[in-house]
Structure of non-specific serine/threonine protein kinase:
Amino acid sequence: MMSETIQKYYQTGNYQVLRQFKSKKNRVQLIEISAGQQVIRLIEKTFTEAVALKKELSMLNLLHEMAFSVPECLGQFDRVLLYEYLGGMTLCEKLEIAEVCEPDLFSGPVNRDSEITALLKKTIDWLNRLHQKTGLTFYDINLRNFIVRDNLIYAIDYEDFSKLKPAVDYGRLLAFILTYKPVFTEWKKALIRELEDYLNNEIKVNMDEVRHEKERELARISERRAKLV
Ligand SMILES: Nc1ncnc2c1ncn2[C@@H]1O[C@H](COP(=O)(O)OP(=O)(O)OP(=O)(O)O)[C@@H](O)[C@H]1O
Ligand SMILES: [Mg+2]
């Protein structure tokens, strides 16, 4: 469906809301437009702040030009961006399922090849390419900001891109993985060791910096959680 048709249907309220996603900052919904024989599902992201929309859009255009795997933007309004619906699962869901379905993954003498390790290494590669090509850090490394489709990692949510050290992204990634429920399991610690080896041997990032950033983020997370109790 052409994006003008999408915009026309959307602007006249000719769509249905199918579900709402979890979002801290904005409102994100899956919507469906029926235009004659054609049915199209889209993500509607309504921004609280207009400046956040502008930043997201300019980063999306930059990533798109550089051939990063990102969803296509199919409509743009004052406070709303319409995105191609990727389907698939978030990395957060993948992690949760892997720990339940493969509890013995890291307990043998040699680690088996696993989907979750491969996906997280691909996420590290995505971030490494971002650092190398743009000099920017992703910063908002929440595993719900990465979607897995056809074995490819798509990143969404570019509002918090900033100019920091690459180690910040990697340290935050490791801290987030460790603190999803159930937190700090032996399984997660073994996964982290494997990712740290990858960062050290393949990405060749300074691991003292990564571990420092990981500890800083763990401290922030525990502060945030203490406030919630
Ligand atoms: N193009 C897409 N295809 C499929 N699902 C998507 C897409 N965009 C967003 N989602 C879903 O919506 C959720 C929220 O999207 P996004 O992270 O862009 O919003 P946000 O307002 O920045 O959220 P938060 O503030 O919680 O980070 C994602 O975790 C994902 O589950
Ligand atoms: Mg998000």
